[in-house]
Amino acid sequence: MQQDYVCALTLAGAAEGILDDMAQDLSSRQLGRQKGDTNTHTAFNLEAGIMESIFDIPYSEYKRSRNYLRNRLKHSEKGYQLDLSDIHIDCKNLINHAITNYKLITGKLPDSQYITRFCEEIGVS
């Protein structure tokens, strides 16, 4: 079961990264900002902004902690013991960000019964 989450995290991370780049491109063109500006509209930037304004967590610290597990899986050394006890939460967050970025780009949710059910379960509309 845990291996399924590792695969889900890897695929969701890739989708979130690709769609984040696309959302940044679109948003920076619409807002007249440079790509990479933390004020562009992407799922991560929106969430990081909330974390900074409500919980006073700096953008860079939030980014590091949010990407920690994904980066450890990509760059872990043989024999390194990684705590995967909350991997299901990381998977949901990355899938949510990928879906949100898709919606930011297209203006609608993907047309899939699985995505619709996922969004209903976590409260995304």
Q: How is the topology of this model organized?
A:
Blueprint: H1 2-31, H2 43-55, H3 59-66, H4 68-75, H5 87-106, H6 113-122
Order of helices and strands: HHHHHH
For the secondary structure, the number of strands is: 0
How many structural domains are formed by the residues? 1
Say what oligomer this is.
single chain
The value of Rg in angstroms is 15 Å
Distance between the termini: 28 Å
- The low-pLDDT segments are none
Bulk shape: globular
Q: Which strand-content bin applies to the residues? A: under 5%
Number of helices: 6
| Average pLDDT, all residues | 86
Query: What class do helices, strands and sheet pairing give?
Result: mainly alpha
Main β-sheet: number of strands, strand sense, barrel status? none
Provide keyphrases for this structure:
mainly alpha, 6 helices
Description:
With 125 residues, the chain is mainly α. It has 6 helices and no strands. The model has no long low-confidence stretch (mean pLDDT 86).
Would you kindly provide a brief summary of this structure?
By secondary structure, this protein is an all-alpha fold.
